[in-house]
Amino acid sequence: MQALLVFLAIAALSLLASSRTLLDAARLPGVAQLAASGLLFLIFGALLGPGQTGVLTLQDLESLRPVVALGLGTVGVILGLNLDPRLLRLLPRVVFTAALAHAGVAFLFVSVPLAAVLLLTSELPLATAVGGAALLGAAASLSSGHFAVLGYRSGRMERSRGLAVALLTILDDGVGLGVLALALALSASASPAEGLGLVSLAMLLGMMCGALIAFLTYGLKDPAELMAVTLGGVALVGGAAAYLRVSALLAGVACGATLALVGGRAVEQVARALGRFERPAYLVLVFLVGCHLHGQDMDAWLLLPGYVTLRFVGKILGGALARRYAANMLELPPRLGYALISQGGLALCLVAEYLLLVPGTLSQQVFDIVAVGAIINEVLASRAFRRVLEPPRRAPEGTA
């Protein structure tokens, strides 16, 4: 009963935090910035979870696993719809190069040093240590564009620059998802071949569900009927993935991408229907993810400063490299790296999925580092983004 009351309270808070008034950057800039990331719900989950006060126990979290899978599947479907293959083909190649540059530099800056640290300070097998470090690098490679979106909505940033930053943060999702698929293939089963089979099964499941949703929504005009079919299809993705013990996130991405590719005119209506539930579902998911934070492993706390520092440096250098590649194609701010510090919720989804499918000491350490690091990076991003809004200093006239 206690777990049910907590869950209902969080669901009500998620609806309140999804209010357009709270997210209006022009009216309430401070509140909008605080509500946009949703990391307050991560803190709530960490405080109420078994690692801290224990309001929600381990048994409660086990019972709520289908809800987590449903949330991960929903996030995946929305990501897949955003990564529409037909629209991606219209983007110039330099845009993909720029996104890969800022994500890849941060990935290398974090994964390589931390892999060496894990190998030298623990007795983990080579593949396990490299897999954990790679997942840390994948989480570090991701950025959120909500500061840029709030910036141009409030009039503090040019719209073209804000949209350009948001585009790069959307495209870097592919790096994180690819590393997650590789990590699950190597670690989610007894052998890499069997793990690859499970990842392929998740993708095939998502493609079949996407094609089914496209078939069922074809020709539908009633909004209520369309919404019911859409939500039922998304629930099917998460539920089937949870039953088969495969990645709900990857299945959702495959579902959304398939739907975007073959869905025809109904795709826009499906996306609009999901958009009504996107924000509350994301906030509830972030809360449940936060409940898995233990925070009692000293090794994780020792690695946390290195993770945050290396990611910060990697994003600054990667942003400069990305701007060099796409300066002639996108109107990017001069200090692009400072706009990429915020980590976003997909990083939490990656490590939560890995923790659920590959439970163990290392996966818990990786999860704790990324979860606490996301909060620290959000604080750093709020200060770093001010440098993006400041005009670059010009050298005095007459100086060499």
Automatic annotation (TrEMBL):
**Which source organism?**
Stigmatella ashevillensis
Q: From which residue to which does any coiled coil extend?
A: none
Keyword Transmembrane helix recorded: yes
List the top taxonomic levels of the source: Bacteria, Pseudomonadati, Myxococcota, Myxococcia, Myxococcales
Q: Which UniProt keywords apply?
A: Membrane, Transmembrane, Transmembrane helix
Q: Looking at the record's lineage, which domain of life comes first?
A: Bacteria
Task: Give a yes or no for keyword Methyltransferase in this entry.
Answer: no
* Protein name per Swiss-Prot or TrEMBL: Sodium:proton exchanger
Q: Where is the signal peptide?
A: none
The transmembrane residues are 64-83, 95-120, 126-150, 162-186, 198-219, 226-243, 301-323, 335-357
